[in-house]
Request: fold
Amino acid sequence: MSPLAKLLEAALFAASRPLTVDELASLEPAAGESDALAALGELRRLYTHEDHGVELVEIGQGWQFLTRREYAEAIERAQFTLRTRRLSAAALETLAIVAYRQPVGRIEIEEIRGVDSGAVLDKLVERGLAEVVTRGEGLGRPLLYGTTPQFLEVLGLRDLDELPRLEELSVALRPPAPAEPE
Amino acid sequence: MTSAPAVQDHAGFVVELEQFSGPLDLLLHLIREDELDITDLPIAKIADQFLAVINELGLNQAADYLEMAARLLRIKAQMLLPRRLEEDEWEDPRSELVRHLLEYQQIRELVDWLSRAAARRAEQFGRGFAPEPPAAPPAPLVIDLNDLLAAAERVIALIPEPVLHRVVPRPLDVEGATSRIEALLAERAEFGWRDVVGERAGIVDVLSSFIALLELAKRGALCLAQPEPFAPIVIRREPPREAA
Reply:
């Protein structure tokens, strides 16, 4: 195991959130991004092949040690960690719209959902899953929202590209059918 | 938690208020229930069903649902308008709603995907105790009937048993008060309400004194003044003389 891999292992062990490659590379002044990536690869192989209780996961635009799924029940039962609160259907609907339409304003979200969404949106911001990313043009310069790294973390995603592409969904959204000439 | 007993009368069609995240969700539910073709929506049928359900659930108070009901009825009316066959400019009044429904359906599919992803992620744990998330402001009040009743019961339990109060007839002593005030008038040109009733006056004393004061004022023996609302009443011996 290379000295850099051991250093990164220590940092990842100590951290309670995913660490980005940049953050990891900055631990060793002589190391660049590619060195960090190589060390991460080494670590990941080690934890995958040597049969550990934890694995090194690429998540939320960073890397993190997570316990293996097979121990979920035991750890949950023992309550060693804080339970993550589940997201309501309304919260997930709003998140889905924010994720796919970002930057998106409250009005557009409400148009798609057909219900008032201000409170849900505020809650998502409080939980750090969505944030104001910019202001829109137009009347009142509305706040526009986007997802956060925390959103990726909660869903176990590496980045937004891991979300399903709209074309892959069974309901493909067709543009309003134009009056076709016979 | 036990689920609420199902209503049997409605041919097995049981919906719960909490189940729907909005009118579009309810509409999709009705469409799926009857396996209707979303792109060729039998608008009259779906409008009637929608109205029946929101009535039944008491959702006809909720603006979002009412708005959708109005929209459905408008489309239903538009569909009934006669149109000439050769008219190729005709735009299906349902198209906007259908587009909206499809868009929403897509979102619902994403919701399924996201909740599966979140559930999978929840099977893995990171290091140790994450710091407590910052305290959120209180959630909007959500309370069910049982909680409300239980709370009411707790409050009621705190109220002491009603103490029976024996009513003793005690007529107002207006004459006594009048002579007391007259004595004061003889002594001082001006005095306050407190001087009349004393420090710890009972309700009977207050009433007696007040009536006596009004009576004496009517007789012109004294003058009542109150510098401002709720200020102590000032009693003067005689009405101030008008400037000559």
Q: What stands out?
A: Chain B is about 50% helix and 5% strand. Residues 1-15 of chain B have pLDDT under 50 and may be disordered. The beta strands of chain B are 190-192, 223-225, 234-236. Residues 31 and 37 of chain B are 8 Å apart (CA to CA).
